């Protein structure tokens, strides 16, 4: 697994993960959206932490 994201991409994902996780756990949105935002927030946090995005690989895209 090679890094395929630049630091700016990782930072944006980490910030979005924080926002999504806050919205999910604070209960700001309705019930089904809490789960969706929570899962997306965790995925964004993990991809930001490791610097690898599987979707970029499937699409043949790299930001690094």
Distance N terminus to C terminus?
13 Å
Beta-strand proportion: under 5%
Main β-sheet description: none
Unreliable runs: none
CA-based gyration radius: 13 Å
Explain this structure to me?
The chain is mainly α and 64 residues long. The protein has three helices and no strands. It has helices spanning 7-26, 31-50, 54-59. α1 (7-26) packs antiparallel against α2 (31-50). It is elongated and about 35 Å long.
Task: Describe the SSE topology.
Blueprint: H1 7-26, H2 31-50, H3 54-59
Compose a concise summary of this entry.
The chain is mainly α and 64 residues long.
Primary descriptors:
64 residues; mainly alpha; 3 helices; elongated
């Amino acid at each position: 697994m090679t890094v395929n994201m630049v630091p700016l991409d990782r930072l944006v994902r980490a910030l979005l993960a924080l926002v999504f996780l806050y919205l999910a756990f604070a209960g700001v949105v309705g019930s089904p959206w809490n789960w969706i935002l929570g899962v997306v927030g965790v995925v964004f946090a993990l991809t930001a932490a490791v610097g690898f995005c599987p979707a970029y690989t499937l699409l043949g895209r790299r930001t690094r």
